[in-house]
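Run log // design_07
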């Protein structure tokens, strides 16, 4: 893809999302979040004693921090981490927090492209500044990098923006790819992928999840500066699992029964789960967390699950807690609970396996040591393939297969325990990706 086509893509994307913003709430947030973005950046960077004015080349560093050897990258003034959305943030978070713990004085800027990430994380205290990333073009890239003046940039997993990466390379600002993953179908490996290959050449080092990714990079001449580090999501879910969700509504609903927790479900998932819960097994309790939480979709889910109640209904009327056990389905219509909610599942179901994009984060469930059920579209997720291979997870295509898998794990206690143990052991065996990146950063402190 030449620059002409890339620029055309940027123009069409920007125009299309502005049109969609007339009726789509998510698109509207994307547009509104960038409307005064450079004014917001300048204002936030110049507040109080944390002033980091545009164009400054050196931030004031405390003598105490220097004497304690807390500062990486030659007294790095600011680290910029970019994440496409919420999933990528969860991957980058272990590294971001490790950097902050190592050096509490370190300034960190966190950016998002999607409202799905920014709106959830905008109040996160682990970063000093959180912004939407301005749309990629030569002018915005220069202006943004002038404003934050980073000494190190961490790009999480994917979403490559040519002008930002080109400008960082021009200024000799080191850029690391964290938890990268590559597949043959991506444009880097196509005849038209010239500009995409140039983007990868702007990285100083690429930390990839697996050997397949490393070998694919070798086919396009990227042989140096590539490390198979694993996936930082393993580190993140292990950290999450240290904090059990203590929720009176969830406890009152479960009543120590064998509950299915179904996370990030789409309509096809919900149809199968409703058929199982309402038609095949009336006593089965299900906690369902739809991927889309707009009113229209939640109303549809309530109609599917006839004996259901929404979490916020009970939250807003606590008198319902005493009768919540009469329902067989609890619909979670709020955000921020899912990763720890899996701890309440006897068996956990991961949604998205009937969409073109595939399943959502299966590791959030696996870390709790419970068997997992997924839809049939999972092949591009190596961790899902691995979990199926070690009998920690099962794939289903319809309600009959769901019933068969459920019956097995509900009646065969030995098979159930072995599957749960395999899931947990798989996650813990692959921890440590964040430490590998940290070691590289501190060893190469003169980058």
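design_07 sequence
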């Amino acid at each position: 893809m030449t620059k002409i086509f890339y620029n055309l893509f940027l123009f069409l994307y920007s125009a299309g999302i502005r049109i969609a913003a007339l009726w789509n709430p998510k698109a509207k947030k994307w547009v509104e979040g960038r409307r005064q973005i450079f004014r917001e950046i300048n204002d936030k960077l110049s507040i109080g004693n944390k002033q980091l004015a545009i164009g400054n080349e050196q931030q004031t560093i405390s003598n105490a921090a220097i004497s304690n050897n807390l500062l990486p990258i030659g007294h790095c003034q600011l680290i910029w981490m970019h994440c496409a959305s919420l999933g990528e943030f969860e991957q980058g978070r272990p590294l971001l927090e490790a950097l902050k713990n190592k050096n509490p004085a370190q300034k960190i800027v966190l950016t998002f492209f999607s409202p799905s990430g920014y709106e959830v994380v905008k109040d996160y205290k682990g970063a000093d500044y959180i912004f939407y990333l301005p749309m990629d073009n030569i002018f915005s890239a220069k202006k943004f990098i002038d404003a934050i003046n980073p000494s190190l940039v961490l790009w999480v997993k994917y979403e490559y923006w040519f002008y930002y990466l080109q400008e960082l390379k021009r200024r000799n600002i080191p850029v690391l790819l964290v938890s990268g993953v590559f597949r043959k179908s991506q444009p880097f490996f196509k005849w038209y992928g010239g500009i995409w290959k140039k983007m990868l050449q702007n990285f100083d080092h690429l930390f990839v999840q697996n050997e397949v990714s490393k070998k694919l990079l070798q086919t396009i001449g990227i042989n140096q500066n590539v490390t198979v580090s694993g996936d930082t999501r393993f580190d993140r879910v292990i950290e999450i699992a240290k904090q059990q969700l203590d929720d009176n509504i969830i406890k009152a609903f479960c009543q120590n029964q064998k509950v299915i927790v179904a996370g990030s479900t789409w309509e096809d998932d919900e149809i199968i789960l409703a058929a199982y819960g309402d038609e095949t097994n009336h006593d089965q309790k299900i906690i369902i967390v739809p991927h889309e939480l707009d009113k229209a979709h939640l109303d549809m889910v309530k109609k599917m699950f006839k004996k259901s109640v929404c979490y916020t209904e009970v939250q807003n009327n606590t008198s319902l807690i005493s009768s919540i056990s009469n329902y067989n389905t609890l619909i979670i219509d709020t955000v921020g609970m899912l990763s720890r909610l899996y701890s309440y599942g006897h068996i956990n179901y991961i949604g998205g396996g009937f969409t073109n994009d595939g399943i959502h984060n299966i590791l959030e469930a696996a870390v709790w040591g419970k068997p997992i059920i997924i839809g049939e579209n999972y092949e591009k997720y190596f961790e899902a393939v691995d979990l199926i291979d070690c009998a920690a997870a099962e794939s289903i295509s319809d309600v009959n297969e769901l019933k068969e898998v459920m019956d097995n794990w509900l009646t065969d206690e030995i098979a159930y325990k072995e599957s749960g143990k395999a899931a947990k052991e798989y996650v813990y065996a692959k921890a440590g990706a964040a430490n590998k990146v940290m070691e590289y950063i501190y060893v190469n402190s003169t980058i």
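The chain has a mean pLDDT of 89.
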